[in-house]
Design a protein that fits this description.
The chain starts with 7 loop residues before the first strand and ends in a 10-residue tail after the last helix. The chain folds into 2 domains: about 200 residues, Spore Coat Polysaccharide Biosynthesis Protein SpsA, Chain A (Alpha-Beta Complex); about 90 residues, no CATH class. The chain is of the alpha/beta class.
Length: about 325
């Protein structure tokens, strides 16, 4: 175990991650002095595995609606209980293996750059060759390096600003990390994306239905984020929502109307989708295969994202708390 200053620890969250959790906990335990694992009702022996590896295990009360944000908050509080002088915390999902040396690297970056509250690195997929859906995840993780507006679920955070904004919003079923970053940036803090390898993720997506549900969750997250922080000057995810409505509803309604009233116009409208795929593919910087798959997923994904937007509107109007939208 690392014995060094600054003082940092890690929070791992998971549910029924099986062997993936073992890889995650071992990779974190080799880098952090204190590790908390927060379990959300696993039935595969995850709790016993965590205890066997010597980490602090927190079992969530599942009678209260579960969210990843709530799990991270409770893990963070458990970490503070054992290390009140904690300076940095690394949050990581239980389906990720942490790259050797990453936690210390992230902490050192924050120590050297006091204006940054969050730093994250490159997440990669473990098996992008096993399915096109895993490949799409890997492409999606390839985000521009440098100062960024948001981070993902794996990130090293400075404790004081995290405490000042009262952590994650525990009621959010998705999009909780970007929402947290919005509040941190509103307080004058910055977020940075390093090019260094951070985690190896295992999406384990092998069916179209899994990808479809994942995109529904994305659409829901866009709508939720825009509802919370869509006002100027932030305009959080407003542009993403507008694109979803345009390509996922307005254009399809136009195609349907033209099929009924002006059949000759339908082919032209459908060709716009094809041209959109071509445009995105030709502007890609990866291999031809990857560019075309990504372009097709971006265009097709607007339809399940639209369903996610509609689900959010229904939930908000009915004032109901949605269950998690899971794809595994």
């Amino acid at each position: 175990m690392i014995e060094s200053s600054p003082i940092f620890g890690a929070v791992v969250i998971g549910r029924n991650e099986g062997a993936r959790l073992g890889l995650c906990l071992r990779s974190v335990c080799s880098q952090a002095r204190h590790v908390v694992y927060v379990d959300s009702g696993s039935s595969d022996g995850s709790v016993e595995l965590g205890r066997a590896l010597g980490v602090i295990v927190v079992e969530l009360d599942m009678s209260i609606p579960f969210t990843a944000a709530r799990a991270r908050n409770e893990g963070f509080q458990a970490l503070l209980a054992v290390e009140p002088l904690l300076e940095y915390v690394f949050f990581v999902d239980g389906d990720c293996e942490v790259a050797e040396g990453w936690v210390g690297k992230g902490c050192r970056f924050l120590a050297q750059h006091p204006e940054f509250a969050v730093v994250w690195g490159r997440r990669r997929e473990r098996f992008p060759e096993r399915s096109v859906y895993n490949l799409l995840c890997d492409i999606g993780w390839d985000i521009e390096i440098g100062e960024s507006k948001y981070c993902g679920g794996d990130a090293v955070m400075r404790v004081q600003p995290l405490k000042a904004v009262q952590g994650f919003r525990a009621d959010l079923i998705c999009g909780e990390e970007p929402e947290l970053c919005v509040r941190l940036r509103a307080q004058g803090w910055h977020i940075y994306h390093l090019p260094d390898s951070m985690t190896i993720h295992d999406a384990a997506m092998y069916r179209f239905g899994q990808w479809w549900m994942r995109m529904i969750r994305s659409g829901y997250a866009f709508a939720l984020g825009a509802a919370l922080h869509g006002a100027p000057p932030e305009r959080h995810w407003v542009g993403e929502c507008r694109r979803v409505w345009l390509w996922g509803l307005i254009f399809p309604v136009g195609v349907l109307a033209s099929a009924i009233l002006y059949q000759w116009w339908t082919l032209f409208l459908l060709s716009i989708y094809v041209l959109q795929v071509v445009r995105i593919a030709l502007s890609g910087t990866r291999s031809k295969r990857e560019n075309w798959w990504w372009a097709a997923s971006v265009v097709l994904g607007k339809f399940p994202e639209m369903l996610g937007q509609l689900k959010f509107l229904i939930d908000r109007n009915l004032r109901t708390q949605s269950r998690l939208i899971e794809y595994k």
